[in-house]
Specification:
Elements: E1 2-10, H1 14-22, H2 27-30, E2 34-43, E3 46-55, E4 58-69, E5 74-81, E6 86-99, E7 102-113, H3 118-144, H4 146-152, E8 153-162, H5 166-174, H6 179-182, E9 186-195, E10 198-206, E11 212-222, E12 227-234, E13 239-250, E14 256-266, H7 271-275, H8 281-312
Antiparallel strand pairs: 1-7, 2-3, 3-4, 4-5, 5-6, 6-7, 8-14, 9-10, 10-11, 11-12, 12-13, 13-14
Helix pairs in contact: 5-8
Length: about 325
């Protein structure tokens, strides 16, 4: 086993920091490497979670069991299902109060690498160091400015009802490698999927003004649920976070409802640079809502036409 320890001082109450770490469903917003997170089970102070995240810029997924000690301000974790080259991984978040509005967060890891090969040990060590430092910096920023983060965050969704099969609609969204042929606003798309259901997608899209934006996302595809969660790794200049979720839900009267949900965090110091002098965060939220909503609705309407044409056939 190899052991590491990373720590950071945070100017926020220890209990508030603990709360941020305890709610794993918010990690995709708080922590850069985390793409998607789910709580699978909860029994008292013990839970099983599944995380999808980047490690050394590669998408990975694993299942962990966590023991939460709110009074002791500590969360212990151990991976139940690891992904190569990790053989095993345990650790803990340990929050040490320093005063009413300060604490030190210590992140501990103990791991082994597949076959203890030097290259595997080096890979895991590098990933643990990079992600730990990133997560601790993110945690400090969020904890010290939680009110501002909430002010800068907006969530919105668009839905389209489709008289077609959920599997056909899902296939349209899943096969994003075909979007340049299917979606007029997509000029280029490179897609890799080394782990089934875990995709890396780089895309050039054209806006209504004719400008071309390049984005890169990691996508988690749930074919049994007809859902796709994603997180942008390369972001437009106006955003610090953009997470999305496509869902396709059968309707009681027949057909399905396809929904595109977005969670974005505005980059405050980019608002006037991008939108012009005097523009506010609320203006930026409206701008992003319109831009992302327009593209999402266009994609959903094309998926609708695709699925309904095949239903008629």
């Amino acid at each position: 086993m190899y052991e590491t320890e990373h720590k950071i001082d945070v100017a926020a109450p220890a209990s508030a920091v603990y709360a941020l770490l305890a709610d794993v469903t918010r990690w995709p917003v708080y922590f850069g490497p985390t793409v998607h997170a789910r709580q699978l089970e909860r029994d008292g102070t013990t839970e099983r979670i599944r995380l999808w995240a980047t490690a050394n810029d590669e998408p990975k997924t694993w299942t962990s069991r966590r023991d939460l000690d709110e009074d002791g301000l500590r969360i212990d974790f151990r991976q139940e299902v690891s992904q190569h080259p990790v053989a095993s991984m345990t650790g803990a978040w340990n929050i040490q109060p320093g005063g009413p509005d300060s604490c030190t967060v210590v992140l501990e890891h103990a791991f082994s690498a597949v076959r203890d090969l030097p290259e595997n040990v080096e890979w895991v060590s590098k990933a643990v160091d990079r992600n730990s430092e990133h997560e601790l910096e993110n945690l400090r920023g969020i904890a010290e400015g939680l009110a501002e983060t909430e002010e800068l965050t907006t969530v919105f969704a668009d839905s389209v009802d489709i008289n077609g099969d959920a599997a056909v609609v899902y296939e349209f969204l899943y096969r994003s490698d075909l979007w340049p042929e299917r979606l007029p606003h997509v000029q280029r798309l490179d897609l890799t999927e080394e782990t089934p259901g875990l995709q890396v997608m780089e895309m050039d899209t054209k806006t209504a003004t004719g400008a071309v934006h390049t984005t890169k996302s990691v996508r988690v595809c749930f074919d049994d649920e007809h859902a796709i969660a994603y997180k942008q790794q390369v972001l437009p200049a106006l955003l610090t976070v953009h997470n999305g979720l496509w869902t396709i839900v059968p309707q009681p009267g027949g057909g399905v409802r396809a929904t595109s949900e977005h969670t974005v965090v505005i980059k405050r110091d980019a608002v006037e640079k991008i939108l012009g002098e005097g523009k506010t965060v609320e203006d930026a939220k409206a701008f992003v809502r319109n831009a992302l909503g327009t593209n999402s609705t266009a994609t959903l309407n094309l998926a609708k036409a695709w699925a309904e044409e095949r239903a008629d056939g």
